[in-house]
Design a protein that fits this description.
There is one protein chain. The chain has 160 residues and is mostly helical. It has one domain. The two termini are 21 Å apart.
């Protein structure tokens, strides 16, 4: 399971890093063309915006992989023992349900509805741009299941 997690981590980090580089380069190009050449590049705004969407969604998925997402820590820290385990299980369930219904299913609907729409400047399919929503949802579900299994196996080892 650790090899799978490491492979997903690397994929997300490398992809997000490449997109961050693209975002930086197109932003610099936009500034250069606007202020030095006096004729701004029109495509860079769309590319930067689409890159930012993908970076944010990939970063969110990675955050779940490292178990460093917002999980109502201020509530969780108030509990200990059995109550802590119950709160932790509830948080895990909410994350899984949200990722499944909102990101994967809702994101899939979003992709289907917007697939034939094209961005005004670059002509990209908006469905392709939004496809990162269900993709990140799948990664979040995989990570969350791994996190639960890791915590449960660690808990089982403590009891033996």
């Amino acid at each position: 399971m650790q090899k799978t997690k490491k492979a997903i981590d690397n994929f997300l980090l490398i992809t997000a890093s490449i997109l961050l580089l693209v975002l930086t380069l197109v932003t610099l190009w936009q500034v250069f063309t606007r202020f030095v050449l006096g004729s701004p590049s029109v495509a860079t705004e769309e590319i930067a915006g689409f890159s930012l969407i993908w970076i944010a969604m990939l970063g969110a998925a990675y955050g779940f992989g490292s178990d460093e997402h917002l999980s109502l820590d201020f509530i969780r820290e108030r509990f200990q023992g059995r109550a802590y385990l119950g709160v932790r299980a509830a948080i895990d369930a909410v994350v899984l349900l949200f990722a499944l219904f909102v990101l994967v299913i809702g994101g899939g609907i979003l992709v289907n509805v917007t697939w034939s729409e094209v961005s005004p400047i670059m002509g990209f399919s908006m469905g392709a741009v939004y496809s990162i929503v269900p993709i990140s949802g799948v990664f979040i579900i995989i990570y969350q299941v791994m996190n639960v299994l890791t915590r449960n196996s660690a808990k089982g080892e403590e009891q033996t």
